[in-house]
Amino acid sequence: MAPISRRRLLAVGGGALGSAALAGCGTPVNLPESMEAVRARPGKPNRGGVLHFGLSTDPANLDPHVTTGAASDFLRQLTYNGLLQYDGNGEIVGDLAAEFGWTDTTTYKVRLHPGVRFHDGTRLTTEDVVFSFRRMMDKKTAATTGPLLDLVEKVEARGADTVVFRLKQPDTTIPFVLAGPTANIVSQRWIESGADPMTQVMGTGPFRFVERIPGVSTTFTRFDDYFDDGLPYLNAIVFQPMSDDYARVTALRTATVDMIDYVPATHVDVISENPRLRFASDRTFGFGFVGFVTSKPPFDDVRVRKAIALSINRPSVLETALLGHGQPIDGALMPDAFAGYPRKLDNTLPYDPEQARFLLKKAGREGMTLPVVTTSTYSVIARPAQAMLPGIRAAGVDVRLTQQEWLTFRASVTAKSFPAHSWGTAPKFGDPSSLGDFLSSTGTFAVNTGFKDQEIDRLLAEGRRTRDRSLRDEIYRDVEQRALELLPMTWTIRRQQGEAHYDYVKGYQHPPKGSWTGVTLRRIWMEKTA
Amino acid sequence: MRRFLLTRFAQALLQLFAVGSIVFLLVRLIPGDPARAALGDGATDEQVAQTREAMHLNEPFLEQYLGFWGRLLQGDLGTSLMSSRPVMQDLPTRLGNSLELVLISLVIALVLGVLLGRIAATRADRPADHALVAGSIFGISLPVFVIGTLLLMVFAFFIPVLPPQRFTTPWEDPVTHLKILILPVVTLTAASCAVITRMTRSAMLETLNTDYVRTARSKGLTERRVIKDHALRTALLPVASAATVELTTLIGSTVLVETIFGWPGVSSLLMSAVGQRDYPIVQAVVLSVAAIVILVNLVGDLVTRALDPRAEEA
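The joint structure predicted for all components is written out below.
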């Protein structure tokens, strides 16, 4: 073999590496610069502009019926519509529905807006609505809304513009379910043509999907034939996933993006004090809790569960973990905005390490070792878990916290590998019936504790059937009271959570009740002068 | 040389096979379910089980393993579990973006490091040498995320001459592209440049005291020629070896740099894939990065042999 000349070797090597680099230079979708222009309209919201949104999560899928959290719901709400939606105050209003309501205790009727079109130009029909709900109710879809439609016997089209939901028994949750971010209407023809709704998007919403580049961006542009006159005002929205809290806040502060979600508690003050920024938040949805595996020792003994619940110094956890941005929960899980009874249960579980010690002694668990698992992926969950340790130790418990990456944590919780887990989430919707997710024997979160109580199951079922407001308050108060006695899980703190944006972004509202749908993104506009 | 090439090539293939097998095994051993990631918190166990079936995650382990190598040999890196897109649709672009950062940083670190090392060695024990040694210790000691965050604070907040901007390709806007390159490249270059400076300095100091350098001087060559043609040339041998190590270090450092500066490289693809247990993407990214590292080491060995033919005899 002829010897390789050094210069040739270096030249070929360098050239190859250079070409590899150049060939690979790619980019997220770049919209034409003209789309950034904002057209002022006296007395009306401005038209035009592109909103760059720093999103806390890169959604795992774009399926209109399967949610992977509030961040993915933001995307979904721009391109799809449901029958109902929440307005900026969290009240239920029509979306595709022009009229809606109960005709009797087991029949809910919806009349559709005329002239609604999908992004491919086809007209929305009642058959699409029926097909969409059948898809949600089909277990193969694994739809988030599926289990909430368990009392629906039949969804049927009546004429060209009316859809009727027939229920097996009265169910007050139906309007909340229909307004949820995953009760979207899809095109039957589109789905049946073999489209993959996890990666492709086609709805009736104000924005149409352009492209998603995993980990980089998801781009939507204006749908000119949107049925709601004048909407949307923006030309486009570009979501850029920024899972790191600091990176997301820095991107906002340096105007790399116009808006972000999931403002971390540690940055709420920095953002609130900036006169150019606006923080839109609530203190009603997000909360933390400690779940106990009630089917195994030591938490098969309610005295031990109560001891841990009493040893959590909630005001201190709030201050330490979230710098005071939220509220301690020492009583009902539901906030005042959702029901009339919560205040009556305040101070049921005050910080009382002495009483906790006493209960542990009675249970024969004095000085016990307690492994607790939490996740390291989300600071909003990890920080409260860390902050509750001193209180529990003060009760004489040798608590040991293990932090795991999100899916590993989920696997540990499902397998009940640890006797207790510290988690954070939010109710599915703003009504006490959403307690079922945490307390009913089949609730998504309740199954992790192995908790089953026939009385709570009975009350939850009764609450769903009851329409009288004061009666419902009594029922759900009983549910919460019993949960505070049996303690399959103990609530810790309610967190302030919200989005931040520049003051030139107008019209965005973060509803104080209802659900985290981000639906008001459909109605925002820009007042940029530059 | 032929024997050497064949042996190294075979070793490289074996290394790739080992890396591929280990990654294949490890990603499946990590607790956490891609189906759970795709369905979110609200999914019941029954729904997760159905989705696992749809994602073909219940196939026997051996079948999955053989299928993985079978497809790979046909140039198919698989399809993302989450986006259902072929891995090859995203990987080259993202790898290219990362390589751009790494290669530019390495070239700057090499040029600057050799230059500074030479200055330090030829001014040994003088103020310039002390300053360069102190500077290089500083560069080596500071972690990449500290340098990146400091640069961002200074040049984005306090003196906003280089605010972070949206990623733009050189084809769209070369000036903006250059601007957004500066901070991540400086961050990546700092530590590597310091390592190369120290290595060049010590190698040159050693060479400057050898007999053949003294001979060259005694022949009446100018000091400039002695350093350029005799001392520096020999001193570059360990630097060339160090460069391959630095390149692999730089590839590792991009994970943090891409996160800090929002650079759409291969790291963000890997991070999001690990978070969602998107096995095909994790495997493809790790394998491609491993292939680059193995190739770089192979090239490094060849360069060393080309620069010092005596090594061939060893």
